[in-house]
């Protein structure tokens, strides 16, 4: 485990790392998740082994610190990841990022293009104000104190044992603020940033999640969109072979 200070209070973002050849692959998780839990089995595959791999936990999540006065916006998450990559001596990395982590990766590539050479995004949030059926919108619909004091336990019950296993490790206040920031989005919005980025971009959409809105526009901008058969939101669990193929560029 390694760490770097990301705010004026001395809070630390932490990551676990597997040594290997450069350029590095950096794995980012979604809301209420952890990077190693969702991606270590992918990085260990023979097709991907041998590359330096970093599994970073966003502030408020996993093994990273959860400062009370941090905003947990997408921009702040991206800046914290940039601190981690600078501390690790990483540049020109491939970012393999899921859900909210995908939105963070897009913002990071926009703010610090020197750190990113390629994006592999799994059902990344691209638009502000998703429908209330989205987890982030559901959490953000509550006031912060209301969520922390009353609704957090109910949400843990509702999301099921797989997601709850990592969500219960996230700080409730950080979880709520992250959801609020994700729902608010960025300016320009993540979709517009992704369409304008010059790096190679791959977007994975689980077949069971339905058609990706705005797919034609993304593809016209050079984003390679892959619909993964037999997969829902967690493509890396539902169809790891297709996920690995997308990371390696063979599928």
Q: Spell out the helices and strands N to C.
A: EEEHEHEHEHHHHHEHEHH
Question: Which structural class is indicated by helix and strand composition?
Answer: alpha/beta
Computed over alpha carbons, the radius of gyration is 17 Å
Mean pLDDT: 97
Give the low-pLDDT segments: none
As a percent range, the share of helical residues equals 40-55%
Say how many strands there are: 8
Straight-line distance between termini: 32 Å
How are strands sequenced across the largest beta sheet? 1-2-4-3-5-6-7-8
Major sheet characteristics: 8 strands, mixed
β-sheet strand percentage: 15-25%
Q: How is this structure best described in words?
A:
There is one protein chain. The chain has about 250 residues and is of the alpha/beta class. The protein is about 40% helix and about 20% strand. It is built from 11 helices and 8 strands. Strands 1-2-4-3-5-6-7-8 form an 8-stranded mixed β-sheet, sandwiched between helices. Helix 2 (about 75-90) crosses helix 3 and helix 5 (about 145-160) crosses helix 7.
Q: How would you summarize the topology of this molecule?
A:
Blueprint: E1 2-5, E2 12-18, E3 21-28, H1 35-43, E4 51-57, H2 74-88, E5 93-98, H3 100-111, E6 116-122, H4 135-140, H5 144-158, H6 161-167, H7 172-184, H8 190-196, E7 200-206, H9 215-220, E8 224-228, H10 235-238, H11 240-248
Parallel strand pairs: 3-4, 3-5, 5-6, 6-7, 7-8
Antiparallel strand pairs: 1-2, 2-4
Helix pairs in contact: 2-3, 5-7
């Amino acid at each position: 485990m390694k760490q770097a200070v990301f705010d004026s209070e001395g809070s630390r973002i932490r990551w676990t790392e597997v040594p290997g050849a450069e350029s590095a692959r950096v794995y980012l998780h979604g809301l209420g998740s952890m990077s190693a839990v969702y991606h270590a089995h992918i990085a260990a595959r023979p097709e991907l082994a041998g590359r330096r791999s970093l599994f970073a936990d966003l502030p408020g999540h996993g093994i990273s610190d959860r400062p009370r006065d941090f905003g947990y916006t997408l921009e702040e998450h991206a800046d914290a990841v940039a601190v981690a990559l600078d501390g690790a001596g990483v540049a020109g990395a491939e970012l393999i990022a899921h859900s909210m982590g995908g939105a963070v990766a897009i913002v990071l590539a926009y703010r610090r293009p020197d750190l990113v050479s390629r994006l592999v995004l799994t059902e990344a949030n691209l638009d502000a104000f998703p429908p209330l059926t989205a987890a982030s919108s559901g959490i953000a619909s509550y006031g912060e104190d209301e969520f922390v004091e009353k609704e957090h336990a109910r949400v843990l019950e509702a999301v099921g044992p797989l997601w709850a296993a990592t969500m219960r490790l996230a700080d409730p206040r950080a979880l709520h603020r992250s959801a609020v920031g994700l729902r608010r989005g960025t300016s320009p919005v993540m979709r517009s940033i992704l369409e304008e980025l010059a790096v190679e971009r791959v977007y994975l959409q689980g077949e069971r999640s339905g058609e990706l809105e705005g797919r034609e526009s993304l593809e016209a901008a050079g984003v390679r969109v892959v619909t993964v058969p037999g997969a829902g939101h967690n493509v890396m669990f539902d169809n790891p072979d297709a996920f690995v193929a997308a990371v390696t560029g063979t599928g």
